[in-house]
From TrEMBL:
<keyword id="KW-0880">Kelch repeat</keyword>
<keyword id="KW-0677">Repeat</keyword>
<feature type="region of interest" description="Disordered">
    <location>
        <begin position="57"/>
        <end position="77"/>
    </location>
</feature>
<dbReference type="InterPro" id="IPR006652">
    <property type="entry name" value="Kelch_1"/>
</dbReference>
<dbReference type="GO" id="GO:0005634">
    <property type="term" value="C:nucleus"/>
</dbReference>
<dbReference type="Pfam" id="PF01344">
    <property type="entry name" value="Kelch_1"/>
</dbReference>
<dbReference type="InterPro" id="IPR052439">
    <property type="entry name" value="F-box/Kelch-repeat"/>
</dbReference>
<feature type="compositionally biased region" description="Gly residues">
    <location>
        <begin position="61"/>
        <end position="70"/>
    </location>
</feature>
<protein>
    <submittedName>
        <fullName>F-box/kelch-repeat protein At1g26930</fullName>
    </submittedName>
</protein>
<dbReference type="InterPro" id="IPR015915">
    <property type="entry name" value="Kelch-typ_b-propeller"/>
</dbReference>
């Protein structure tokens, strides 16, 4: 959850995979592009074939207007092809290929770094969903479910606002936003996929923590939370990653913090949390609210918060994590960490129906440290049991359209910490 702005060399100039049995080094520079294309560790034959083909089209050996740094200055995307066909070819590549592609020529580098290629991917529906998570205060990693690769992001700079792990994060467009709060000090750090660097993000109109949030394409909505005085908020804001701006939305019907947010059916929903009861006392909320993006009106929905197996056992609501929810194909699912159950929300009858169980290794501490996220057409669960001084986390996936939960192990790595933060970037 931090930032910094390393020297601008290549898109992923310092990105490395984690040490696993599939260890693959992702260190690129313009002068080393040929070494990448011949890297024997790149075992995916289809991926290598696409990159080699692009290299041939772009006269990688220096023909066609080579610049002093070895990159083509021809001005075209792929020599011998018109722009539309060139872009069509690029859209078929994995987003992991865009770093070496960007090193081929200045025109390709400009296309990738402008973010235009990702906007076109979104319009075409060619999205890849990578999981970004943090198990350490200053460190973030990414996991590509398709290639099963672990990747390390640059370290975030030190900041007092990030002394503790319970900070919010959100992926929107090609940005990863991490929100830090310390007493009255507040900061947002922004990681850009386009530059592989951290920078200070634009502050909200009303800084807050413990809010509910979700992203949809290049926009995100944040609702509720509390301010520096601990006052629970009913306000909401929308972030546009295209122009890096925040805009104020109409207020919700209820004040709430420690809530969760999702997009479903083109609308934003805020679910559960802690509100304000009689005498200004904290009150557990079971309702949700729906925000229509077209009419800009909030509508309260009773009993939308998923039930929890340990409700009523005297545990403070503040000790439990916000509702663990995820939306796949416009269906809302929830994880009950205490009962190790998975539930689906029936939108017609407005009731929660149990559909199966969580993975056996989905350990948590009152829900903290367990990530339950939508990842394309899958639900991803990240967690794991802990032992003194050692432990591991697991990434398990389930495709709801295939029936009741059948969890498949995607990846596993050593970790002495829980998952502090987790989000999914779709681009």
């Amino acid at each position: 959850m931090f930032e910094g702005r390393p020297r601008d060399s290549c898109l992923v100039s310092t990105l490395f995979t984690m040490p696993t049995h599939q260890e693959t080094k992702w260190s690129f520079s313009i002068s080393a592009k040929r070494a990448f294309l011949n890297n024997e560790d790149e075992t995916d034959p289809h991926r290598r074939k696409k990159i080699h083909k692009l290299a041939e089209f772009s006269n990688l050996d220096g023909g066609g207007g080579d610049g002093g740094d070895g990159s083509s200055d021809s001005g075209s995307l792929i020599p011998g092809m018109n722009k539309d066909d060139s872009i069509s070819c690029l859209l078929r590549c994995s987003r992991a290929d865009y770093c070496p592609i960007a090193s081929v020529s200045r025109s390709l580098r400009a296309l990738v770094r402008s973010g235009e290629i990702y906007r076109l991917r979104r319009l075409q529906g060619t999205l890849e969903h990578w999981v970004y998570f943090s198990c350490h205060l200053n460190e973030w990693e990414a996991f590509d479910p398709r290639s099963k690769r672990w990747m390390r992001l640059p370290s975030m700079p030190q900041n007092e606002c990030f002394r503790y792990a319970d900070k919010e994060s959100l992926a929107v467009g090609t940005d990863l936003l991490v929100f830090g709060w310390e007493v009255s000090s507040y900061v947002i750090y922004r990681y850009s996929l386009l530059t592989n660097s951290w920078s200070t993000g634009k502050s909200m109109n009303m800084p807050r923590c413990l809010f509910g949030s979700a992203s949809y394409g290049e926009i995100a909505v944040l609702a509720g939370g509390c301010d520096s005085n601990g006052r629970i908020l009913d306000t909401a804001e929308m972030f546009n990653s295209e122009d890096q701006t925040w805009s104020v939305l109409p207020a919700m019907n209820k004040r709430r913090k420690m809530c969760s947010g999702v997009f479903m059916d083109g609308k934003f929903y805020v679910i559960g949390g802690i509100g304000v009861g009689e005498g200004n006392e904290p009150k557990v909320l079971t309702c949700g609210e729906e925000f229509d993006m077209k009419t800009r009106v909030w509508r309260e929905i009773p009993d939308m918060s998923p039930p929890r197996s340990n409700q009523g056992n005297g545990m403070s609501a503040a000790a439990m994590a916000p509702p663990l929810v995820a939306v796949v194909n416009d269906q809302l699912y929830a994880a009950d960490h205490a009962g190790m159950a998975v539930r689906r929300y029936d939108k017609e009858s407005r009731v929660w129906v149990q559909v199966g169980s969580l993975p056996e290794q989905a350990g948590s501490m009152n829900g903290w440290g367990l990530a339950f996220r939508a990842c394309g057409d899958q639900v991803i669960v990240i967690g794991g049991p802990k032992a003194p001084g050692e432990g591991f986390i697991e990434l398990n996936s389930w495709v709801p359209s295939h029936g009741a939960p059948q969890w498949h192990l995607l990846g596993k790595k050593q970790s002495v910490n829980f998952v502090y933060n987790c989000t999914v970037m779709s681009c």
